[in-house]
Specification:
Layout: H1 2-23, H2 26-49, E1 54-58, E2 62-64, E3 68-76, E4 85-92, E5 96-100, E6 105-106, E7 110-119, E8 123-135, E9 142-147, E10 151-156, H3 175-180, E11 184-185, E12 189-195, H4 207-213, E13 217-222, E14 229-233, H5 247-266, E15 270-274, E16 277-282, H6 291-299, H7 312-319, E17 324-328, H8 334-346, E18 351-354
Parallel strand pairs: 2-10, 14-15, 14-17, 17-18
Antiparallel strand pairs: 1-3, 3-7, 4-8, 5-7, 6-7, 8-9, 8-10, 11-13, 12-13, 15-16
Helix pairs in contact: 1-2, 5-6
Length: 355
């Protein structure tokens, strides 16, 4: 269609110009000059308008896997180029998905695109660059260009419960048991009845003991023996890969995210270590923003140059007396890893393997 329009205008201009030369009619010259000025003007509008464009996005900087939000892209041209029409197309990395929710509403000054943005995979994802198609109102000239405006979005892992995970356990010997022996709180094991103290929840009132003693008495339970835990993550590139995605590794990260969010509620201190990861401590006392650890987990990749099993003797020596150690390894490495920890289990250390 564009070529037909230009061909018709150029043919009409040539016809009017030739007619003016043959008949010496000034009106023909004037009409030919108007058509020529129209083509030249629309060409300059498109070319010059492409030099001064700005892009603005309205989108979050952080998302969670599976989350969908509404985002907006706006391309603004200078007001003096009001005859410039713009069509914008957003590009995204493979971990994001765009779904337009309405057609872009072009105006003489701007183009605004609204869309649904869905986070598919954890990690650093990108919006951009932006592909633009510019044209004049008559559709005579088009210009395509790319604006390298990049917006980074950090996709946090979605917590997924680990079915066979348990919170009870201890370190080597009797350290954890002796440290926690005698502590009573909100557990499920019956301990006895004691006099009421301010702050005790009313749901724990023991009515028969209260009536017998003539003063308030409450039920008391023993807390389970919950030892602090070290999560040791295998980061060697031995995980199953599908292109640039590691499905099993991503699933393990989701399980660790759930453990990290649940640990403070259980009153368990947590240490996260990896083959290529500095030690990260998480305790109920310093647990303020749950997204702090999720941001760390979002960026972890299986790119270490050695295996976590090479660090196992050091982990046992450093943490084994006080902590239970949970190894997270690829499914295909479960059997050799389980055999590797048997000597430590025989010595009484608490070492578990998850795949």
């Amino acid at each position: 269609m564009r070529e037909y329009k230009l061909t018709a205008l150029m043919a009409a201009t040539s016809f009017l110009l030739c007619s003016g030369l043959m008949t010496n009619n000034r009106q023909m010259y004037w009409m030919a000059s108007v058509l020529g000025a129209l083509m030249l003007g629309t060409y300059l509008i498109v070319k010059r308008g492409a030099q001064r464009l700005s892009v603005a996005r309205r989108c979050p900087t952080e998302m969670v896997e599976g989350e969908t939000v509404e985002a907006q892209l706006a391309v603004v041209a200078p007001s003096r180029n009001g005859l410039l029409w713009i069509k914008a197309e957003e590009t995204v990395s493979s971990g994001l998905m765009l779904e337009p929710i309405e057609t872009e509403s072009s105006t003489p000054h701007s183009s605004v695109v609204s869309y649904r943005l869905t986070a598919l995979r954890r990690g650093e994802q990108q919006l951009g660059p932006v592909k633009l198609t510019l044209s004049d109102p008559f559709g005579l000239f088009f210009h395509s260009q790319q604006i390298d405006d990049i917006t980074s979005i950090l996709v946090l892992p979605r917590p997924v419960q680990l079915p066979n995970w348990r919170w009870e356990g201890g370190g080597h010997g009797r350290f954890a048991a002796s440290a926690l022996r005698g502590r009573r709180g909100e557990g499920s094991d019956w301990h006895g009845v004691r006099p009421y103290t301010p702050g005790d929840p009313l749901r724990r009132i023991h009515w028969r003991a209260t009536a017998r003693h003539g003063q308030w008495h409450v039920k008391e339970f023993e807390t389970s023996q919950l030892a602090p835990t070290v999560i040791a993550l295998e980061q060697a590139p031995t995980w199953r890969a599908e292109g640039d995605v590691y499905p099993d590794f991503d699933q393990v990260i989701r399980h660790i995210a759930w453990i990290a969010l649940e640990a403070p509620r259980q009153g368990v201190s947590l240490i996260l270590v990896g083959s290529n990861l500095p030690e990260l401590r998480l305790t109920p006392e310093n647990y303020a923003d749950p997204r702090v650890l999720l941001r760390q987990l979002a960026r972890i990749q299986p790119n270490a140059n050695h295996s976590i099993l090479d660090d196992l003797p050091r982990l046992i020596q450093q943490y084994g007396e006080q902590y239970r150690i949970a190894l997270f390894v690829p499914p295909q490495n479960y059997a050799p890893c389980h055999a590797r920890v048997q000597p430590y289990l025989a010595q009484g250390y608490s070492v578990e393997v998850y795949a």
